[in-house]
């Protein structure tokens, strides 16, 4: 029997199910104690069409936990790093708050926490993961639009969903190899201003 592939965590966001309730943003802020005005997870919104044929689009955003993460490459003190399971983390004890990683992230997913003066971003709720729990944004998504799991496990919910649905990653042309996938992503939303 061949050896199983090592774990590689990622997230799928099924935009067909997202209702724009913002529970992902709120639960992330509550779980991680994020200061007012800053976000680890947020939802871009845009409207398309002309009255009376107008539709609102939602696009939840977060760190893409890139395989070739620019934020990791530019960190002068190696505070940003990528674990073998694909999760990109920040060692808060090493971070000097220089902001290089914030500038290097093409997904605008990092910020300098004004209270701690170090870089911060989504870490897939590392503490919850260690207890076998999904990230807070996944757990609290009322539309079940967020699916988290091991991309290398063909029996995982995330792998099965990706196997039968066309999905897109953001900014693949940059070669970052992001581990966040979108199902039902409209090209219109890709062009919408990024950031919270």
UniProtKB/TrEMBL annotation:
One of its GO terms (molecular function) is 4 iron, 4 sulfur cluster binding. Keywords: 4Fe-4S, Iron, Iron-sulfur, Metal-binding. CDD domains: PsrB (cd10551). It holds the Pfam family Fer4_11. Residues 9-39, 54-85, 86-115 form the 4Fe-4S ferredoxin-type domain. InterPro entries: 4Fe4S_Fe-S-bd (IPR017896), 4Fe4S_Fe_S_CS (IPR017900), DsrO-like (IPR054822), ET_IronSulfur_Cluster-Binding (IPR050954). This is Tetrathionate reductase subunit B. It comes from Neomoorella humiferrea. The gene is ttrB_6.
